[in-house]
């Protein structure tokens, strides 16, 4: 990534309304890594028909906590759909934890799930299957082609809002009305 460009790490990518890629239509994706080796993100607003309890069962884990068992998992993106990721708030680290910011991290190891079951996990988390990856400079090129809007992360959007409201809320946080966006590309 050129040194004169701002890193997109710890920002939300908001898919433009004219996105023709079904994998990213109306998505909000948290950028976890953005450097000269490429970019990695987790989509935060695509619930799937798999529950956290289903994932626990596949991993031979269990809990009697019905709220936890019934919580929906999310599609974190179109890459590695069998790989689980836990996006969470906390400064605690697990075996495979990658810090995104002082307040956010992503963990891909089983030990966090055991702690969540015991009540020793993060206060807020999303369990996702899959992720989004971009080759070096690919995400920046997509930004230049008006495929995405970007804004700083707000934990309330990531963890508190209903999934269907996150796309609009992320744009609203920047003062952008997506219903008024043109599908034309232009540069000043």
Structure explained in plain terms:
This protein is an alpha+beta fold. It has one domain: 3-Layer(aba) Sandwich (VC0467-like). Helices cover 22% and strands 32% of the residues. It has six helices and ten strands, in the order ββββααββββαβαβαα. Strands 1, 2, 3, 4, 5, 6, 7, 8, 9 and 10 form a ten-stranded mixed beta sheet that branches. The chain is globular.
Brief descriptors of the model:
188 residues; alpha+beta; VC0467-like; 10-stranded mixed sheet; 22% helix; globular
Number of distinct helices: 6
Question: Total number of β-strand segments?
Answer: 10
Distance between the termini: 23 Å
* CATH architecture classification name: 3-Layer(aba) Sandwich
Radius of gyration (Å):
17 Å
Estimate the mean pLDDT confidence: 91
Helix and strand content put the structural class at: alpha+beta
Question: How are the SSEs ordered, and which strands pair?
Answer:
Layout (H helix, E strand, L loop, with lengths): L10 E5 L12 E8 L2 E6 L3 E5 H7 L7 H5 L1 E4 L3 E11 L7 E3 L4 E4 L2 H9 L6 E10 L3 H7 L3 E5 L2 H6 L5 H7 L16
């Amino acid at each position: 990534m050129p040194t004169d460009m701002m890193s997109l790490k710890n920002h939300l990518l908001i898919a433009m309304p004219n996105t023709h890629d079904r994998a990213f239509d109306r998505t909000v994706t948290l950028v976890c890594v953005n450097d000269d080796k490429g970019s990695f993100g987790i989509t935060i607003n695509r619930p799937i028909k798999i529950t956290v309890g289903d994932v626990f069962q596949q991993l031979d884990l269990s809990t009697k906590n019905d709220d936890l068992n019934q919580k929906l998992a999310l599609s974190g993106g179109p890459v590695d759909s069998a790989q689980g990721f836990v996006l969470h708030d906390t400064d605690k680290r697990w075996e495979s934890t990658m810090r995104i910011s002082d307040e956010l991290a992503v963990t891909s190891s089983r030990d966090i799930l055991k702690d969540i079951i015991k009540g020793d996990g993060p206060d807020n988390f999303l369990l996702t299957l899959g992720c989004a990856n971009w080759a070096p400079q690919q995400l920046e090129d997509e930004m230049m082609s008006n495929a995405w809007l970007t804004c700083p992360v707000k934990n309330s959007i990531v963890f508190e809002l209903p999934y269907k409201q996150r796309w609009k809320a992320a744009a609203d946080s920047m003062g952008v009305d997506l219903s008024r966006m043109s599908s034309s590309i232009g540069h000043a």
